[in-house]
Amino acid sequence: MCHQVISPFMINSVAVGSTNPVKIQAVCHSIQRIWPNAEVAGVAVASGVRAQPLSDEEAIEGAVNRARGACQQRNSDLGIGLEGNTTETTYGIFVTGWAAVVDRNATVGIGSSGRFLLPALLAASVRQGAELGDLIDEWAGQHNTKQKQGAVGLMTNGLISRAAALETAVIFALTRFLNPQYYS
Length: 184
Known about the structure:
Blueprint: E1 13-16, H1 21-34, E2 39-42, H2 56-74, E3 78-89, E4 92-103, E5 108-112, E6 116-117, H3 120-127, H4 132-140, H5 150-155, H6 162-178
Parallel strand pairs: 1-2, 1-3
Antiparallel strand pairs: 3-4, 4-5, 4-6
Helix pairs in contact: 1-6
């Protein structure tokens, strides 16, 4: 059983800016820990960024665009957008995911999942313009892994699922709403 968090306000409806079942599952699990009776629904919303965001800033922009679009499209209390990305560092390319939460007052909360280093072979293909989801499918010999375990699930041998990683990002993005007194 999940530990329920006390929230300073009530949320009845949440729109997820995606129809990807893994993203919806991550949001559902996060939201139900705080607002167990909230309705969560996924909607198709454009990110407004590349299919493979190559920086944290680009992924955050995509997540915020998805959150705003979902909130408006469903007229929900909260909109949540999730966007994965790769980012180049001096150590190589890292993979992470970002969540943005937007309310009806246009307040935005942002959080990310953990990061892991992409193997050099895959990183070289990302540098040449390949999308990580397609690379992981080909590399693992599977289909549509981004709607299943994703790169994180494959690279951790299932110790961290894509849903769990995204759930962390959603909870971090909700901090602004769980403790608004610290963000005023």
